[in-house]
Specification:
alpha/beta, TIM Barrel, eight-stranded parallel barrel
């Protein structure tokens, strides 16, 4: 069954063309002002931009990172970052930090990124002074609070979807387990997608103008999971195709805003009536033709042995596929739950799943982000200090070759 478009959606390609001027793409690779925005013209421009990007993948620093998901800009993130970078022994086996930047904290009034810029400037200066790298995690979800997007996006505007029974859903969608920016809404109309891409573009331009642009080692977008809440998917114009188009448009925007940098989209689930594995495989096939696009997962977990502890999200079918590994970059994360006995039998099993090739049952990932989980709790198999010791004894990180695309 054909479940999505045979050719790439115009929305993602239009993002690439619109941001070309900010990406360092030569002028001849961009559409001239006034050119008709035909799909063939945009596609040609995007392919030229992609080829140029591949030739200068300069922000490539594979290895292990520590993940900070306390949310920036916030005092909690600053405290966590300062504590880690001051501990040379803990940081020794890590290339740097992967820090989550929450959209709803980063942007105040529309286009006001001052709070976020101050936070990312401080983080970049700190990691650079410590001789480390930074992976920027653009977070547009919230699993523990009411906000995933800035306040203005929750008010009336082109980012709203009208409801048949009256009222509107604006900017974000309430899933069964949290909130997500409606990234499938408002492309080329000033809506949610356009505002998300404006944020990414603004951060990329700001970082490029600063003193520490070379300290950026990657960009991450959050997991593809999106559970249906009390308001149906249909009522907010969500479909599997529109959502996947939105994810690809985000990665395209990231590639344009951060030239020479791998852009990772975490994939685990993509809900809807049709095969999630097929849609996620479509993403991988698209990424293989866009030399900046990568994949990964939010939970590196081989699965525990106890009853009910199996863990096998649909996205693993892509990450464990030998025909995908090495063609696009992978960044996989080990979250707090993944330290537990229901997710893994041992630290070795977790690490092997991350770094070993498909022929040995692994994902062959080039980046692994271990969440800062410093104290082993009830049910935990390991903690961050044990990860530090394990990595120090594991030898050189095995997956350092650039992807082939």
């Amino acid at each position: 069954m054909v479940h999505r478009r045979a050719t790439h959606s115009l929305s993602a390609l239009a993002v690439c063309a619109a941001l070309a001027a900010c990406s360092g793409v030569p002028e001849e690779h961009a559409l001239a002002a006034g050119d008709p925005l035909t799909e063939s013209a945009v596609a040609a421009s995007a392919l030229s931009a992609a080829a140029d990007h591949k030739s200068r993948l300069t922000h490539w620093s594979p290895g292990n990172y520590i993940l900070l998901n306390s949310g920036a800009p916030s005092t909690a993130e600053v405290s966590e970052r300062k504590g880690l970078l001051a501990d040379a022994a803990t940081m020794a086996p890590f290339v740097g930090l992967q820090i989550e930047y929450d959209w709803w904290l980063f942007e105040g009034a529309q286009g006001d990124y001052s709070a976020g810029f101050a936070a990312i400037d401080a983080d970049l200066a700190a990691v650079a002074n410590a001789g480390k790298k930074l992976v920027i995690f653009f977070q547009y979800k919230n699993f523990s609070g009411p906000n995933a997007v800035p306040t203005y996006l929750q008010e009336s505007g082109p980012w709203c979807v009208s409801q048949a029974k009256g009222g509107s859903v604006c900017g974000q969608y309430q899933m069964s387990n949290g909130e997500i920016a409606m990234l499938w809404q408002g492309s080329s109309t000033g809506g949610t997608a356009d505002r998300l891409h404006a944020w990414v573009q603004a951060v990329g331009a700001h970082v490029a103008e600063g003193a520490y642009a070379s300290s950026v080692a990657g960009v991450v977008f959050p997991e593809s999971a999106c559970s249906q809440g009390n308001i149906s998917f249909a009522d907010v114009d969500y479909t599997q195709t529109s959502y996947l188009d939105g994810l690809e448009a985000d990665v395209t925007a990231g590639g344009a805003a951060f030239p020479g940098t791998p852009i990772f989209q975490y994939i685990n689930f993509l809900p809807g009536p049709d095969s999630q594995e097929s849609y996620l495989a479509d993403y991988a096939a698209w990424a293989q033709t866009h030399p900046f696009a990568g994949a990964g997962c939010p939970d590196l977990a081989p699965g525990g042995s106890a009853a009910g502890c199996g863990f096998d999200p649909p996205g693993y079918s892509v990450l464990l596929d030998a025909s995908v590994q090495g063609t696009i970059p992978f960044n996989v994360a080990v979250e707090a739950a993944d330290y537990g006995s229901c997710r893994t039998p041992s630290l070795k099993d977790t690490y092997d799943l991350g770094v070993l090739p498909a022929s040995q049952g692994g994902m062959g990932a080039q980046y692994i982000a271990w969440v800062d989980h410093p104290h082993e709790g009830t049910g935990d198999v390991f903690d961050l200090p044990e990860v530090v010791t394990y990595l120090e004894n594991a030898g050189s990180f095995p997956n350092t070759a650039k992807p082939t695309w």
